[in-house]
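Narrative summary of target 7.
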Amino acid sequence: MPPSPRTLLERFFAATDTLQLHLSDRWREHTNRRTIAIIIGGGLLFTVGYVFFIQPPENFPVDRLVSVPEGTLSEVAEELKAEGVIQSPLAFKALVVFFGHERSARAGDYLFKEPKDVIRIARAIANGMFGLEPIRIRVSEGATTREMAIIFRSRLERFNESNFLPQAQALEGHLFPDTYFFLPNATEDTVIQTMRQNFDTRIAGLIPDIEKSGHSLNDIITMASIIEREARISADRKMISGVLWNRIERNMALQVDAVFLYSIGKNTFQLTLADLASDSPYNTYKNKGLPPTPIGSPSLDSIEAALYPTKNQYLFYLADNRGVTHFSKTYAEHLRKKRLYLD
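Modeled conformation, tokenized:
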């Protein structure tokens, strides 16, 4: 007996349900495969893009000045690639445009403390985020211009020692020793100008008394530079100043060893008889009066000691092994104290 219409309908709907379930399972299976393929493909694309376009180059210039020149965006991009800052000029240009600077970037010196990807580089240069922070540099009291050159050369990338020394040595003693804060891209001209302005500011109040003293500014600074090397205590400095001015007034040679450290790099214990007999203009044993230039940059305390000496009748002095200074009026007394405190 053939199946009834109702039975046929039930069989039809059952078959339809089975087919739908089968198709649904097939769809889900293919969807999962497509999703996985898309994820893998997208990941590979992102990785390739990051490695070749976004991430910092291996030779990224950390803590080194990067100069961005005036020019077109393409020229800037090529320069940054040459400096090892970016890998892809194309990605950099696209990002700069995205940040709202279609035709140019902010020229100047940039400093990056750590490697940065092209996104952060583009943002920094588009907005002029230079990253320059002042560097604290201490120039000690008594420092010579040769010593200053070594200090600044080691801290400032744009500092040119060869250009600095001829200018600075003409101002020996007139570049004030102090703690300075310079931007990393400061040049030797900036250093000299800043230190000389500081010197002028510090001694401005002393100029009227210097003019009344009968000594030139250079004489006062030269005497102060000697005193700076000869004593550390303010009272001793003023006493020694009085002694040295006494010797000059009596037309006696100063006979100070500190000048040799400046002229030939030798201290008291390294000097030879040949050194003491040399024709150097800085030889204060052979030449009377002050040396031709200061022998370093004196502190304000030493400058004041040179200008305001303690009046005394002494002509000799020496420092014992404890740093105590002893003064004498005669050479015989000086020799006796030398035997007593040094020998």
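The chain has three domains: 66-127, 135-203, 229-341.
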